[in-house]
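Hi all, long-time lurker, first post. I run a small reading group and we've been trying to get comfortable going from sequence to structure in the token notation. Rather than ask abstract questions, I figured I'd post a concrete chain and ask someone more experienced to write out its structure so we can walk through it together at our next meeting. Sequence below, copied exactly:
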Amino acid sequence: MAVEVRRRVPAPHAAARGRGTGEKGRVQAGDALPLPIRHTNLIFSALFAASLAYLMRRWREKIRTSTPLHVVGLTEIFAICGLVASLIYLLSFFGIAFVQSVVSNSDDEEEDFLIASGQAPPPKPKPAPQQCALLQSAGVAPEKMPEEDEEIVAGVVAGKIPSYVLETRLGDCRRAAGIRREALRRITGREIDGLPLDGFDYASILGQCCEMPVGYVQLPVGVAGPLVLDGRRLYVPMATTEGCLIASTNRGCKAIAESGGASSVVYRDGMTRAPVARFPSARRAAELKGFLENPANFDTLSVVFNRSSRFAKLQGVKCAMAGRNLYMRFTCSTGDAMGMNMVSKGVQNVLDYLQDDFPDMDVVSISGNFCSDKKSAAVNWIEGRGKSVVCEAVIREEVVQKVLKTNVQSLVELNVIKNLAGSAVAGALGGFNAHASNIVTAIFIATGQDPAQNVESSQCITMLEAVNDGRDLHISVTMPSIEVGTVGGGTQLASQSACLDLLGVKGANRESPDRMLGCLPRWWLVRSWLGSCPSSLHKLPAIWSRAT
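-- Answer (accepted) --
Happy to help. Here is the structure in token form:
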């Protein structure tokens, strides 16, 4: 796609200012203000706070003295005007990019005037690509860094300006990342030229995905497929730097497709959060345990819990005690979201409600590790967390021999000795597979999930049996705690959103929340098929030769 570039004719006063400051006509939004923007922000913020405080005090006095609120004096009129003016300014500050475009458009108008009057603009030279001023080597000082940016960098290096306030203060996330990056280079004396800065939408991660960014990491994404699951043909993205991972997994997809496909079922769906509270005695802790687990109180707890979201639906509460400490494990459905924040808000509602009847309850933490989040735990393996899924397929004998390069009896024997007995000897917890974690993590990263939740999401047990008089292979994988979502977190980033769209589960399903999300862990589960299948190690030399 060709991009047409039009060179603007700089205004004489702008060119003169550029020659004097070294910016060569660069126009900033702050130039439209009589004072530097940081001073203007301070003045209007103080005006807003003072006007609001004065009006609130006056209105409180009128209410106490039964004076009509619409009767105002001269000072109150000034306060109202100041409040409105400062509010308009502060709201407009967040649209400073629009102000910049308005200021810059004056150059376009002048160019259009010159063309209309018959004066041709000067010939446009071919623009040469220039490196960002903040990415030059450590030994060469940036030549074209704006003076205002240079002052901010010096303030960050000296510790006078906190790095985390740059986005808020500047109103430009890309500029804030560049300044932070340059300050980091000066502080550490180390180059990070290999870490790209441009080409990323930093505004999309502000307040959601990453704080204090200085760049982004490039990670290759491959696809494996077609994967035939529940009658659908799918191509699944994987982000990884591990060679042969996608190649070997693609071989599993081929074996499944040539055998007629796989089927799956989501048999449980519920995210958990378990706060811990301390009581004066174990007896008092047991009283609350009895109250929470009493079926007669469930409806009341559900009403309180479900206030947090229209998608959050309380499913149950299970408690455990350790001395006078009570651990309360709440489980709820969360729609299309992974749901950690959703369930945490619901739990907080219940804790506030319980405080009236149990005033001696001391909430130690909103999460007491009985959830259990991002840690390998038996409670997740037994009770489940997130999506609990089983997937199965029957691989025909000829496919086992042709694609997997082995036979049914060898696979069944190896699965028992390695995945089951070997994992038991190691004392594994949910690790009765070959390497399901590899595939789960690759798809988590590609689709914007939380990679740390791979810990419990990759818990998997692989079962292999000979069927049809020992000719064919029945394989199943059971994963009780896959924690995924199609909305929130990293799923809204452009690359990750594109990968979800490739799977057909991008965004929320308005008609039936979590209907499409239920398919997502099933696909990941089948993608873990070869990761759990011992044949990937049984024929490692053959895999390597085909991949290379």
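A couple of things your group might point at:
DSSP finds 21 helices and eleven strands in the chain.
The longest strand covers residues 263-273.
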